[in-house]
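Ligand: NAP. Inputs:
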Amino acid sequence: MKIAVYGASEYTGRLVAAELRRRGFDIVLSGRSAERLRQAAASLGLTGTNVRAADAADPDALAAAFEGCAAVINCAGPFTAFGHTVVRAAIAAGCHYVDTSAEQEFVQSLFETFGE
Ligand SMILES: NC(=O)c1ccc[n+]([C@@H]2O[C@H](COP(=O)([O-])OP(=O)(O)OC[C@H]3O[C@@H](n4cnc5c(N)ncnc54)[C@H](OP(=O)(O)O)[C@@H]3O)[C@@H](O)[C@H]2O)c1
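Predicted complex:
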């Protein structure tokens, strides 16, 4: 099973990616900077891992990055600023979605906007 980690370049994203790898999942590392994602992959020893850069404001690029994944784990905050675009792209790509947000306003807006 393939899982995309968005915001995989930094702290939480790297932890999530490392744990997914430990559990044997295929991983797509995604975020706005291909260079930083490659650095994260190298630091985690994830050579050959699929890196798919996509700007958080570009719905089509995000959906393409998430294509073929069963789920998206969004670790890129602040979520209130650009989280909805990532959620919409995950839905467009047919993925389950989860994130690391503790922003209550954002979490409430997810239920109100995407609950159905
Ligand atoms: N619920 C909890 O208890 C909990 C625990 C830990 C973290 N968090 C939340 O999880 C998020 C990540 O935390 P962290 O400690 O991993 O932070 P971090 O190390 O600063 O990483 C932030 C990540 O977000 C990405 N990002 C920032 N602005 C972006 C933008 N405009 N477009 C695309 N990507 C962008 C960064 O990508 P670049 O490398 O390209 O800058 C990086 O991958 C934060 O919102 C934090 O509040 C919640």
